[in-house]
Amino acid sequence: MGVMAPPTPFPGLASALRAARKARGLTQEDFSGVSSRTYMSSLERGLKSPTFEKLTALSEALGIHPLTLLTLAFMQGKHGESLRALQARVQRELDSLQKS
Predict the structure, then answer these.
(1) In whole angstroms, what is the distance from residue 87 CA to residue 71 CA?
(2) Among 18, 47, 73, 91, which is disulfide-ready with 13 (CB 3.0 to 4.6 Å)?
(3) What would the pLDDT profile of 19-67 be if each residue is shown by its tens digit?
(4) Contact (Cβ atoms closer than 8 angstroms) between residue 14 and residue 46
(5) Contact (Cβ atoms closer than 8 angstroms) between residue 69 and residue 19
(6) By three-state DSSP, how is residue 9 classified?
(7) Which own/partner contact pairs does 53-61 have at CB distance under 8 Å and 24+ positions apart?
(8) Region 11-99: CATH code
(9) DSSP characters over 35-96
């Protein structure tokens, strides 16, 4: 039996990245300006986690804001929060942080 890589700490990101790429009609090779096909494959299989800078670059290549990709990831993650619930939570948290 082979050695398995530890699961990504954020498994929803793998499926969100794949879904966003496919929704845009892009292949993994289309990201060659930002990432190798091998790295994209590793991200989409949840074997690796991108840095914030890489997440931003991937989002730009997809033509979406990084928060859109992260929102999709949280919606597809193990807790499967709805868009409305996520928006309300983020709004509450931002409001409380801005009051400080």
Answers:
(1) 9
(2) 73
(3) 999 999 999 999 999 999 999 999 999 999 999 999 999 999 999 999 9
(4) yes
(5) no
(6) coil
(7) 58/17, 58/31, 58/34, 60/34, 61/26, 61/30, 61/31, 61/33, 61/34
(8) 1.10.260.40
(9) S-HHHHHHHHTTS----HHHHHHHHHHHTS-HHHHHHHHHHHSTT---HHHHHHHHHHHHHH
Instruction: Report pLDDT digits (tens) over 7-32.
Output: 556 778 999 999 999 999 999 999 99
First to last CA, the chain: 53
* For the chain, domain boundaries: 11-99
pLDDT given at position 66: 97
Q: Is the pLDDT of residue 5 over 80?
A: no
Q: 32: which DSSP letter?
A: T
